[in-house]
Input
Amino acid sequence: MRNVVGIISAAALVMLLPASALASKAFFPPGDGNVANGEKIFKEGKGEVPACTSCHGEDGTGNDDLATPRLSGQFFSFLLKQLEDYASDARQDMTMFVMNANAKGLTPQDRRDVATYLAARKVDFGGSDIPALKENGQPVGEVWKGRKLVEIGSPVRSDGYPSDLSSKGKGIPACKSCHGYAGRGAPPVYPMIGKQRYTYLVNQLKNLREGKRANDPMGQMQAVARKLSDEDIHNAAAYLTNAHPTTPGNIRTPYDH
Output
């Protein structure tokens, strides 16, 4: 009987923990593919599938001009899901219009290998160059407003309208509630969105809002994105792209071993 009570208590404790607290080594499934094969495909391609570096860069940190995302250091489970979703057409590439064909050109093991390689690849990426984007005429939000949305949420949209026009009692939830502090992620479900490319973040939030992307678990992100104005999206992306995953008082993340 004592053992049963202990098991129930432990289960209850896990249910009460925030998503970011669950992202310890035990809840952080590493990639199990062939790193060498994943690296070869990423750098050289395979068959008619071009090298991933041609769009995502040599270091896998993406490109704002091409609106491609940072892949290096992203969680294995999320990377693998996106590749599988492209291969099955559950997600459509609305950026370069090549990912569906590329994913189909790889075997299931190849996709697992690429995801394993990228997840293990650690790079020092500080985020998008916001001043340069603004200088080039791209709409850029305000960082402090974005931080408020990410860490706290908001009862109304930045344009003054209720965030859920059909129910004034429902506001914009904090991104932190699923994606963790500063968007550092909560594997295996919620990806790292901090230190992600600004242009990619903006495009994906708009795609989710408009229903052009619909491969998010249980439609959670679509529901949130529908509550966001363009200004909200620009603000959140401006904060997230340069958001630091740690604080001066705690320089470790839940994923440090």
